[in-house]
Write a structure and sequence with these properties.
It comes from Triticum turgidum subsp. durum (Durum wheat). This protein has about 650 residues and is mainly β. The protein contains ten helices and 32 strands. The strands form four sheets. It has a 25-stranded mixed beta sheet, with helices on one face.
């Protein structure tokens, strides 16, 4: 080929061609020799017996910078020892390639991708090609890709590992490597030299020996590592050099052996520790060791599905975490008792099933989550610390979530306060026993409250103090308590003495702080006293019809009450299965901007008195075709109409 200005060349044989003639294809490829200054070459689908001579012994493209080989059937492969300018090399779906020769000419190679090489099993250094790198020492002048930045190895079932000699590690190997990806190589051994690659920014290793996943990332916000082990991973030491990971800020371990104290002490930058589906969190510290003065900078711990003596392990660890601000305990069946605000060193009743919160958490802990802890029970210590029982000792706690932990508060009387007044967010799911909200009336800092399936008879008594002077609650979600708002009059009346000495009753109007409300107690909410109370503050209302089976229409009283919500900007109707009409009078909601109707199959039309002129979005999802068709007819009158 005489095209001297050609810089990129792709030679692609159709994989669906009707006939294959290896000899002919070899001759054709031999005759397609490009000029020596070609920079990018791709050969795909060629079934000749070997590479062309101009890529082999008579290498003639010395200016080559990128070489892609895909689906070729060669037994003889290119000799790249003269490709001194090669920057990128990619071999894909080549069945006969058994070894990869590490040429000295790879001194400027920046990207190497080896994908779908079914026979590839060893790395070879050219000076000693008769021996594999994995079995012999390299020559004294051996190098490991001095400028390589990206290394990808996928679907190579026979390869045993990276080209390290007998796991001997040198910081000169892969000195510039930033991205390493190894997928679906079942014999690949992720030996500890990965930790020695100091330049790494992204490492993803999946489905290899000992590991289901090893994912490392480093950015301006810090370094993160996730390890999911296989059954043959006996120790984290097999895949990680802890003293080389001192910059690690987030560590997630799943199906791994417990961390040892010596490992933790090396992770001097660790802020978040997550352990899942494992026997334990940390190995036994031992009383002798735990008395030694040492601390960790960990601020967040999440444990999920641990099966060992997790309570005892965590009890020993917590006193050494002075900065701990977030703790999540999920599905740890062997932790059955929680005691808050104690001096661990002076507590004799410690057991493997008990978790003791040391007194210092009163000042450091900001967030506490208990999802899926069916056996966990909160108990008071023998001697209460100042601040009361329950969780009140955690005086800096701002967020608390209790999800499907039905026994957690079972030993307490709901006639007293259980939570610290510092709480700003409280979510209780499946926590029964509370009859009213009086136990929460001290939560003057609370801005969001979620009560989901907390008893059918739960009433809103005590809510008033959270929504008026001194309260800050602006988001409330209550579902599964079908009489929550029933008979509630948030505007109490007070007696005034008239001029003749008699008494007359006057309603005391108080403004509310609530801006957003989710509820399925339609009957209780849509009453004049409640809606009057919320009229000046409520901007978003989401009504759920799960408890309204058989409800076909809103009553006149309910429609009138809804119209009192003059500040409402977003109104949503969800899962009203039998409702045939939306409430009349929506046009009077002059601040309404968004109307959403979701899963209301019996509604066939919009209200006869139309929608407010302020409406900017109408969203109809999974409703009748009649309603959808009517909404389509409003296009052009409402800026944004979504119909699904």
């Amino acid at each position: 080929m005489e095209k001297n200005y050609l810089r990129r060349l792709t030679l692609d044989w159709d994989s669906k061609r009707s006939s294959v003639e290896p000899g002919v294809e070899a001759t054709v490829l031999e005759g397609l020799q490009p000029h020596g200054d070609l920079q990018v070459l791709c050969i795909r689908g060629h079934v000749g017996p070997s590479c062309p001579t101009w890529l082999g012994d008579e290498f003639a493209v010395e200016g080559l910078q990128s070489l892609y080989l895909d689906g070729v059937s060669w037994e003889v492969f290119p000799s790249l020892g003269k490709a001194w300018d090669l920057r990128e090399l990619r071999f894909e779906h080549i069945a006969r390639l058994k070894e990869f020769i590490i040429e000295k000419s790879f001194c400027v190679l920046t990207k190497l991708k080896l994908i779908g090489l079914g026979s590839f099993e060893k790395w070879v250094y050219p000076a000693e090609q008769e021996s594999s790198i994995s079995g012999e020492l390299l020559p004294p002048d051996a190098h490991m890709f001095p400028l390589l930045q990206v290394l990808v190895i996928r679907e190579c079932p026979k390869i045993l590992g990276l080209p390290f000699s007998n796991h001997i590690v040198s910081p000169d190997w892969f000195p510039k490597l930033q991205e390493l990806e190894v997928h679906d190589c079942p014999k690949f051994l992720p030996v500890i030299p990965i930790s020695w690659i100091e330049s790494k920014r992204s490492v993803t290793v999946k489905c290899v020996k000992m590991l289901k996943e090893f994912a490392y990332s480093k950015s301006s916000t810090g370094a993160q590592l996730k390890i999911i082990g296989e059954s043959d991973l006996l120790s984290i030491d097999q895949v990680l050099v802890f003293d080389k990971e001192t910059g690690l800020e987030t560590l997630t371990l799943s199906k791994c052996t417990p961390l040892e104290l010596k490992h933790l002490l090396m992770l001097t930058s660790l802020r978040t520790l997550i352990v899942k589906d494992s026997v334990g969190l940390v190995g036994p510290l031992g009383r002798g060791q735990s008395d030694v003065e040492w601390q960790l900078p960990v601020e967040c711990i999440k444990i999920d599905g641990l099966t060992g003596n997790t309570g005892e392990e965590l009890t020993e660890l917590l006193p050494h975490l002075p900065k701990l601000s977030k703790l999540e305990i999920q599905d740890c069946k062997n932790i059955k008792n929680l005691v808050v605000g104690v001096d661990v060193q002076q507590t004799a009743q410690e057991s493997s099933e008990m978790l003791l919160f040391p007194a210092h958490l009163r000042d450091s802990l900001r967030e506490l989550d208990f999802p899926f802890c069916p056996e966990l029970v909160l108990v008071d210590p023998p001697t209460l610390v100042p601040g009361g029982g329950g969780l009140q000792a955690l005086q800096s706690l701002q967020r608390l979530t209790i999800l499907r932990a039905p026994k957690l508060l079972s030993t307490f009387s709901f006639s007293r306060h259980l939570f610290p007044s510092s709480l700003q967010f409280l979510s209780l799911v499946g926590v029964e026993g509370m009859e009213t909200l009086e136990p929460l009336s001290n939560l003057s800092s609370l801005t969001r409250l979620e009560l989901i399936r907390c008893g059918k008879d739960l009433k809103c008594q005590g809510l008033w103090s959270l929504l008026t002077t001194g309260g800050q609650l602006n988001k409330l979600r209550v579902t599964g308590s079908h009489r929550f708002f029933a008979d509630w009059d948030p505007n109490p009346r007070r007696a005034l003495e008239d001029a003749e000495g008699g008494e007359e009753w006057q309603t005391q109007l108080v403004s509310s702080t609530l801006r957003e409300l989710w509820t399925d107690d339609i009957a209780g909410l849509l009453a004049a006293p409640v809606c009057t109370f919320l009229s000046s503050s409520l901007t978003k209302l989401q009504l759920w019809g799960d408890l309204c089976e058989g409800m076909e229409l809103f009553s006149k009283e309910q429609e009138d009450a809804l119209q009192l919500l003059s500040s409402l900007q977003k109104l949503e109707f969800w899962s009203f299965k039998d409702l045939q009409q939306l409430p009349a009078g929506l046009r009077k909601l002059t601040s309404l901007k968004i109307l959403l109707v979701n899963c209301c199959p019996a509604i066939s039309s919009l209200p006869n008195d139309a929608l407010p002129d302020s409406l900017e979005m109408l969203d109809v999802y999974n409703c009748s075709e009649e309603l959808k068709q009517q909404c389509r007819g409003l296009e052009g009158t409402i800026p944004d109409i979504i119909i699904i």
